Amino acid sequence: MYRRGAVSGGSYTLSELSRHPDCVVGYATLRKRVDDGWDVTEAATTPGRGGPATT
């Protein structure tokens, strides 16, 4: 199942969103946050705790 989120006026899969310039976290963090119930936009645009972003 593909999960989609809308950021900056576009609709993206989580994989696509993790590579979007407005996304400040890697795919693993993005997916974990969404799995934990985060809003997709918040999950993508809230900085992590300082670790390196991974894809």
UniProtKB/TrEMBL annotation:
Supply the source organism's classification. Bacteria, Bacillati, Actinomycetota, Actinomycetes, Kitasatosporales
Q: What is the name attached to this protein's record?
A: Transcriptional regulator
